[in-house]
Amino acid sequence: PQDGGAASRDLDRDGFADLIVGSPGEKIGSAEVAGGGATVLWGGPGGLSGGATLLSGEEYDDLGRGLAVGDFNGDGAPDLVVRGGDTLRTLTGPFTRDGAAAAKGEIPNLDDERYLDLAAGDVNGDGRDDLAVLVNDGDEFDARRIHIGLGSAAGLGQELTSVKGKDGYSLQGGEHLAVGNVNNDKYADLAVGRAIDGYDSDLDLPLAKGGMLTYVPGSATGPQGTKAVVLNQDSPGVPGAAEHSDNFGASVAIGDTDGDGYGEIAVGVPGEDQGTVANAGGMVVLPGTATGPTGQGSYGFNQGTPDVVGAVEKDDRFGGAVSLRDLNGDGRTELAVGAPGENAGEGSLWVFPAAASGLAAKGSFSFGHGALGTVPTKAGLGSSFNR
Question: Which of 45, 51, 197, 379 lies at a 20 to 30 A Cα distance from 296?
Fold first, then answer.
């Protein structure tokens, strides 16, 4: 269903990746209001075949709106966190073929916060994955925060703690999150996109104009909010200019595109106007360095870039989703970009190859519903990627 999360991991440890799908609109039994849940489709030598229910919610839980998979207790078996509107449920592996987890739990939400996004990675370098969560604990603009739950031998289950900034207060967050290694140390870092722009009523945040990207490095004690770096399209070297409703940060991903050990950050800018064409969209790649991402040497792609298939069109929203994955096993991550507004809302995907010099438009290609053999129904293909 629309807005459901998706992830892939070998839950039953049979050597084949499985697909986990969230369904927040699922109604359980005779309930009139959706409780949501999560389902696994089992992988095998012939592809996906069969499945099982992993989790079902109760009325108003809205479970399945987001998923994060990681080994939070360090036992070698993948674990799962399923997000609802104000609920985080945990499923501890290993999993059996009927979908049963070794244990189930819930992470306390003592402040009635609304969860916006979540991702997993080893932020403190202890060999266990940690859970990063973006929350909204107040009004729309000035209450976005970054919370962290560190993995332990007992897994997750404790209340999340907020990441503090230089002033000792909770660091400003956003709506979109990625975890990966940007500065080439042994700790995973956070990249937080805040696409909703505007100025806060009680905080001076000029970089919020048009959207912004906040980088938070990891450390032995977790995310270092005091060393956060903030960039937007007015930062030196970043292509474009900060303009209201650009939605810079509407999607974020981390990956090493050139094989130098430093992770680049891909940032979607789906509200970017290309000339006089509104909301045609674009995306930016920020190089990684020992001190984090930099605007110097950054570059971007859109449908008007030479060698990129397609044409600049209104409301295509190219950059609505970005993903960096090593698709061919050469140690460099290729870029996938979604344009959910392409072809009047049918949506399409683009793939950009990676080389020692980084990502390239030459050799990129695009595909949509026709190549996938599906019937287009304004489904917005390219709205999001799995984790």
Answer: 197
